[in-house]
Specification:
By secondary structure, the chain is an alpha+beta fold. The protein has two domains: 145 residues, 2-Layer Sandwich (Phosphorylase Kinase, domain 1); 225 residues, Transferase(Phosphotransferase), domain 1. It is 31% helix and 13% strand. It is built from twelve helices and 14 strands. The strands form five sheets. Strands 3-7-8-6-5-4 form a six-stranded mixed β-sheet. A two-stranded antiparallel ribbon has the order 1-2. Strand 10 and strand 11 form a beta hairpin. The longest helix is centred in the middle third of the chain and has 20 residues. The radius of gyration is 21 Å and the shape is globular. It binds adenosine-5'-triphosphate and magnesium ion. The site of magnesium ion has 5 residues, from loops.
Length: 419
């Protein structure tokens, strides 16, 4: 990966006031550790201080000036008209998907688009910005993804900030999200591919946590794991990412945000965020990979609606484990591997954050499972229900902030909701 040619510029000069410093005030000297998992990573620019406060008070021209100053040629500053042109005015024919913050459209940058920008397909996210929070998330994404480069993080190619419009332009991920593959497609993902995806996603998180100043991703879930043509997993959506605690502090205190079913219980109840909150969410995704069921699924019987509550009694016994394995695997999985993943998932979803493994350890464990070639026989599965044959699971588990407010991912206040 390329190394940034320009020295890092502080992001404070023009548009930042000292008040209301939020998301990225600690994004200084953020360099990856020299762990095994950062070998392929381009050295980051030598950060000085990248901080910003309430940029909503700055004009879009000023924001663009500051971003251009900070990122130089590393990020492309697109015009809205250019993005309209490459997506046929954000036509539904080019729609790749829609999330809580707007639609994502496919576009194509040809050779003549900009000097130095290679011809390639891209994904353009058109943020449905209502108020400050949407703008903050857009800016957080630009600043985090603009600086962090890793094979398991989706590449941000550029951004657009014109008047009230906020857009992001990413590398196009041909296989879409893990969520689509696991729950919506007719064809199931084979065991080895699930393991590959888990390893890739774990490496992405491990990279973030292993930085000199760790980054907490805060919204780890299947829809934010995107897949390249060879099923390499890449994390997208850094709008909620947060710098980890500084100095002797054990956590950062934040508003509780994220997605129900994935957020760690102690984070929901206290607002205390650590890298171990991401590890919990990773454990939930491991359970989804094992069972083919969504983190929360209201269409299931009450005792099966929450994947953590439902699977826990089955995870520590290989005899019982087979009853919760994804029927769409049709027995084609490594029994030893599944047992180890179940054990790992159980550790990741430990109630006490300290009992959860670090992501670097999780990567090692998962990689060691690739050697297992034993395949289960097809007996012992629960019959495939008509529902799961159709699309794997229902799609009604998205209980997130949209239910609370139109455009924020804020989880319900601690008092009113339980995970
Ligand atoms: N870079 C990309 N390449 C290809 N498809 C993408 C890309 N980014 C997003 N998508 C598609 O767009 C869909 C919507 O993504 P988006 O991140 O907006 O929403 P989400 O992850 O489903 O929900 P949330 O708002 O909670 O993040 C994804 O599920 C994926 O299918
Ligand atoms: Mg997303």
């Amino acid at each position: 990966m390329k190394e940034s040619s320009k020295p890092w510029r502080p992001f404070t000069s023009n548009c930042c006031t000292t008040e209301n410093q939020t998301i990225l005030k600690n994004f200084s000297k953020c360099k990856p550790s020299r762990s095994d998992y950062s070998k392929n990573i381009a050295p980051l620019p030598s950060f000085r201080r990248l901080s910003f406060s309430d940029l909503s008070r700055s004009s879009s021209t000023r924001i663009n000036e500051d971003l251009a100053l900070s990122f130089g040629s590393d990020l492309c500053d697109f015009q809205l008209s250019e993005l309209r042109a490459i997506t046929q005015n954000f036509s539904s024919n080019f729609l790749l998907g829609e999330g809580g913050f707007g639609t994502v459209h496919k576009g194509y940058l040809d050779d003549n688009f900009r000097q130095g920008l290679k011809a390639q397909p891209v994904a353009v996210k058109l943020l449905d910005i209502e108020g400050l929070q949407g703008h903050r998330e857009w800016l957080a994404e630009v600043i985090f993804l603009g600086q962090l480069r890793h094979p398991n993080l989706v590449k941000l190619i550029g951004y657009c900030c014109e008047d009230e419009e906020r857009l992001l332009v990413y590398e196009f991920m041909p296989r879409g999200s893990l969520e689509n593959h696991l729950f919506r497609r007719l064809t199931s993902i084979p065991w080895a591919t699930r393991l590959k995806i888990a390893i890739g996603a774990a490496k992405g998180l491990s990279f973030l946590h292993g930085a000199e100043k760790p980054v907490i991703y805060r919204d780890f879930k299947t829809s934010n794991v995107l897949l390249d043509s060879d099923f390499t997993a890449k994390l997208s959506d850094f709008g909620l990412a947060k710098m980890g605690p500084e100095g002797s502090k054990s956590h950062v205190t934040t508003r509780v945000m994220g997605t129900y079913g994935y957020a760690a219980p102690e984070y929901i109840s206290t607002g205390h965020l650590t890298t171990k909150s991401d590890v919990y969410s990773f454990g939930v995704v491991l359970l989804e990979l094992l069972t083919g069921r969504r983190a929360t699924d209201k269409s299931r019987p009450k005792t099966e609606q929450n994947i953590v509550d439902w699977t826990k009694p089955y995870l520590s016994s290989s005899r019982r484990l087979r009853y919760i394995m994804d029927p769409r695997l049709a027995g084609q999985y490594s029994v030893k591997g599944a047992k180890e993943i179940a054990h790992l998932a159980l550790q990741c979803i430990s109630l006490h954050p300290k009992d959860r493994p670090r992501m670097a350890m999780t990567v090692e464990t998962l990689e060691s499972l690739q050697q297992f070639k034993d395949m289960a026989v097809t007996s012992g599965h629960w019959p495939i229900s008509s529902k799961s044959t159709k699309n794997g699971a229902s799609n009604n588990n998205k209980v997130k902030t949209r239910a609370i407010s139109a455009n924020q991912k804020q989880l319900a206040p601690v008092r009113s909701k339980k995970v």
